[in-house]
Amino acid sequence: MKNRLVYNPIKSSSGFIIADFLFAFVMVLGIGIFIFGLTFSLATIEVAQYIVWSTARNYAAANKDEAVARAQAKKKFQNLTSKFPLLTGNGAGGSSWFELTDSDDDLKIGDLAAPGVDTDFENRINSDDKINSFRQPWHGARARINLKLFAGFKIPFLGKVAKNADDFKFPVRAFLIRHPSMLECEAFFLRDRYEQGIKQLEDSKLGKRSSATAPVAARAEDNGC
User: Fold this and answer.
1) Is residue 67 part of a domain?
2) What is the per-residue pLDDT across 32-81, written as a single tens digit (0 to 9) for each?
């Protein structure tokens, strides 16, 4: 037959532009959602850093003793996280996107370089820093933020962002030099400095005093220390 169809459906490619458009649209939409989640996560990490820093600041402030300072720091952490339920997962309703809890495994308060407190951070400190820890005290707070938003996130045609959900769990740390507590000040000035220093000097210079002799050094309040 010499008569042929003017339109040959086998050689036509006019419909491929629709497939290309749908493919590009889905890819742009998926990557756009990923970028939005990334920027929102970075903003969340900033909030988490402020919460951990405020926790470390409460622990660093002078108090009756170290245990009370630790309790006040944990209370500060709980109060702040309750103000950000969407970002931290705490408070009414919770959140399925991010998590920053005060569990014993996630929240650490005190000397983070001490053995067994924060093993990940302890392994990152070299031996010289551990020896000179009295000059570089690693006192503060550490919490762990879980970016649960990316745990099951999938980009169309590319798959999951990460195979392991633990890849988006990051430690957030804050270090502040802790002020001595009231009991530590009393122990230092009354026992170490007076009993072992000034009193011994008085006894050696003036001879053994009688009980009626007024001591040269006396206790006086001076802002806690």
Assistant:
1) yes
2) 888 888 888 888 889 999 999 999 999 988 888 888 889 999 999 999 98
Going by the DSSP 8-state scheme, the letter that residue 148 receives in this structure is: G
Q: Are the C-beta atoms of 116 and 105 separated by less than 8 Å?
A: no
Measured CA to CA, the distance from residue 171 to residue 143 in angstroms comes to 6
167 & 86 share domain: yes
Residue 164 belongs to domain spanning: 18-179
Q: Are 121 and 218 in a shared domain? A: no
**Are 56 and 174 within 8 A, CB to CB?**
yes
190 touches 222 (CB < 8 A): no
| Measured CA distances, 5 to 10, 15, 105, 149 (Å) | 11, 19, 75, 55
Q: Read off the pTM.
A: 0.70
| Chain centroid offset of residue 143 CA | 4
